[in-house]
């Protein structure tokens, strides 16, 4: 159940089209006339820098998953403390860090009652999907910046579900394709990065075992313009 740095190439590979998009946005305004060689070199630097920033976000998730696997509580207050302790990772694109639980749709009323007790206020759960199993955001920090994500079913969208389930099957961090992420009361271009969490002690050597052992995901929300800031100048 470890998630060390060797997983990071897959994190960027799984979001390869996303990285390509980022690179294009970073260099498209830098090409003039026949400066193809300069373009190619700039593109290489932008891709490398983008991958490094995604790797940093993945390391944030490694730290948060380790905190959960240590047996520490995952109350809203504790989650706020975990995320606050990783503040240095929120410098280049990361706008939020959350926890997603896999729950049967039949248990939603029970989950809403639990979340109301834990958070001290009602937490409506998104019900737009149709699957029997839902992937519900039950923790998110910083809360003020990401409050709209609490209760979101990330399994209701094909792009998010595919990334989460690939992460589940491979035990790797996986980046979505470009989507719109929630920040405050807005939706902005960005990505989600998922890292799976399995029940402690459960076998997780094969995709089938990992699916059976999965309890949820830690995830990071990345804002595209922040992730790209300054890359063309590297």
Give the topology, please:
Blueprint: H1 8-14, H2 16-27, H3 36-69, H4 76-84, E1 94-104, H5 108-119, E2 133-141, H6 143-146, H7 158-170, E3 174-175, E4 179-183, E5 186-198, H8 207-213, E6 214-223, H9 224-228
Antiparallel strand pairs: 1-2, 1-6, 3-5, 4-5, 5-6
Instruction: Compute the separation of the termini in Å.
Output: 35 Å
Portion in helices: 40-55%
Low-confidence stretches: 1-14
Secondary-structure content class? alpha+beta
Short description:
44% of the residues lie in helices and 21% in strands.
Describe this structure in words.
The chain is α+β, with helices and mostly antiparallel strands. It has helices spanning 8-14, 16-27, 36-69, 76-84, 108-119, 143-146, 158-170, 207-213, 224-228, and strands spanning 94-104, 133-141, 174-175, 179-183, 186-198, 214-223. Strands 1, 2, 3, 4, 5 and 6 form a 6-stranded antiparallel β-sheet that branches. The protein starts with 7 loop residues before the first helix and ends in a 6-residue tail after the last helix. Residues 1-14 have low confidence and may be disordered.
